[in-house]
## 1
Amino acid sequence: MLLSAIQSFTLLDYPGQSACIVFTPGCNFRCGYCHNPEFVLPEKIQQIRHTFIPESIFLHFLEKRRGLLDGIVITGGEPTLMGDLLPFMKKIKEMGFLVKLDSNGNRPEILSEAIEKNLVDYIAMDLKTNFAGYKNLVGKLVRTEKIAESINLIMRSGVDYEFRTTLVDEIHSKEVMEDMRSMIRGAKRLYLQQFRKEKTLDPRFESFQAFSSERLKETIAFFSEDIESVDIRL
């Protein structure tokens, strides 16, 4: 398992649990607002490859965190691209830790297997935009039918979950968000994240704008009509 970085402690990324975060390199999306391009772009990944952490070192780290951490967050990049993701999750589960998996939802077959084998306790799926806007925002490798499959799978799985959306003023119009609300109608939880333009994969996004405070409040109320819990994650 390739691990590009570790954050040793967080109380924010796994709701209700103390956790550490492991990052995997590589992604099949090219979201312009992505603030982790070093874990996405092949040329940047190559520059930091010498700093990658061996799986054995990470598992040794976990041995020392028994009783101190509740869970592990696996994020990226896009973790479902890793061929040994599921065996890695199994090792973590066998050590007694909870596993939270972050995903863009483009590989529902991996999510399905993780759920079926009881390897995941919490799934966080990014909801980027409406189906019509996905390819323009994230690139040609997206399959919107896969996104729809992942949404349905997660909501029916019985595994705890959240959807999360990074809001960009120039992308998320009222019409787009109406479509997005219908895509996850009846969902348990949605976190809204403010766009940060200080560091973006696509330099063009540095001129884009985050939602105003007033529009953000309106957006919370808008999604709350069809979703159980809507909140802001800073």
Note: The helical segments are 42-48, 55-63, 85-94, 108-116, 134-138, 144-156, 174-183, 213-224.
## 2
Amino acid sequence: MKSTLFEIMGIPIRSYGMMMVIGFALGLWRAIRVGRRVGFAPERIYDLSLVVLLSGVVGARLVFVLLNPDTENWARFYAVWNGGLSFHGGVLLAVVGGYCYTRFTGLGFWQCADLFAPSIAIGYAVTRVGCFLNGCCYGAPTNLPWAVRFVENGVCTPPSHPTQIYATLANLIIYLILTRLESWQRNPGFIFTSYLMLYGVYRFAVEFLRKGYSAKLLWAGLTQAQVISLAMIGLCGLVLLVKYRRPRKP
């Protein structure tokens, strides 16, 4: 693994943080390119993306520290480059931050959420490459030919599932699905709700390979992320069925 890519004047450049920055840049580029076509000013997208990014990182780190008091401490709260982020917590606070910004500026919240949903998927896919380089979030031992040995606390794991790469591939597929759904004529919020449900499905599935290794069990043999993902799937599926099953009226 390569948790530190290189150093600049003695300052280490972490692979996780670098991949997060690259993922953010790709997502922002995509949002601006598509936003121009539907009437969003680029400067508004820049501002909103920064609000969403900062809110998301704080929320992701906050929830992760709260859920892992035995391994995390508040003194190292800022060390996001080492990993230790809860995506579900990040989404929650990012939605709050984005909603406050759109209310302040008069933008449509759901239109903005739909615009950003594919960008979140592509950004997440790239960030998971950082998890792979960092050696965290790996899966159970396996004999598959693409198994990888990771280093944890100075000790090599047995050949294990590279679930970080599975996550990257799954979210690239989610991105492609969302870009196809954009052509469907549905009311605002359809793309974002679809993204949350698709993410929940992916996360629930991949956690079966992580539980007991890089994911903690919470209840009934399910991990923390699986319990939250089940709630997301059920709620978003219900919203899609009730509100978005018919095309938008002209």
Note: Strands lie at 4-8, 11-14, 151-152, 155-156, 217-219, 222-223.
## 3
Amino acid sequence: MLGEALAILTALMWAASTVLSAKALRKVDPIRANVLKSFFASLAMFPIALAAGELNNLFHADLEASVFVVLAAIIGYGIGDTFLFKSIVLVGVSRAYTIAYTSPLFTMILAVLFLKEPFHVRYLIGTVLTILSIALISLEDKKDLGRVSLKGLLMALTAALCWATGTIFVALGLKNISVLLANTIRYPVLSLFLFLISRPRKNWRINEKDLMILSASGILGMVIGGITFLSSLQFIGAARATPLSASSPVWASIMSSISLRERVTLRLLLSSILVTLGIYFLV
């Protein structure tokens, strides 16, 4: 049960990270926010790796495994998130998130094909229930459902494929590299990649409060969440770890509802029931 528990903990960490950074994202460009989150995550990973004795292996790490984890970060976080942000502009948050979070289905297919992970009908049922719970909570806000753009929909689908591909690559890399070393290697490269595509010459107007929020968000989501997610991949495989961890939008909505003391809607209640059923089938 450790792998399943770590995957669910990942979802909670990602949800907390999302809720924490929500205010900063009102003022900061999403790509630049990711630059800062990955930068702070990089800084935090070095002392953790040093304390665990992993920095000694940094220059002796398996080259193929290192390439896999770096590609995973660039494709998943870098390209995937960028496509998602562009999709949000074209079709709105609700449609973009609903389509992008079909990624666990693609991950399951790729994991069976390339990682030779076992396929079970109950895993498929659990994955579908989790995706339905995310769709239900994403469609709660109907104000942006009037816009339809084929380009935007395809971008959201591309984001889902990028996330799935990134998960498979990092799973391949973890066969010959430790979780801590994988994060220590991939986050600085990711931060540099995102910085280069963030139009760095434009003025960066970010106040100290937002910097602190994004720093805490990066540590929660990328450092702690990154360690628990990669660990869950090693224990239970990509086909199960991904849908369990992908339930984060539902937990984020629940956390927002509690922290802001908002009314619990029927959609939120049904979404919570669906994600619980999904976890039951996956566990």
Note: The CA atoms of residues 117 and 158 lie 23 Å apart.
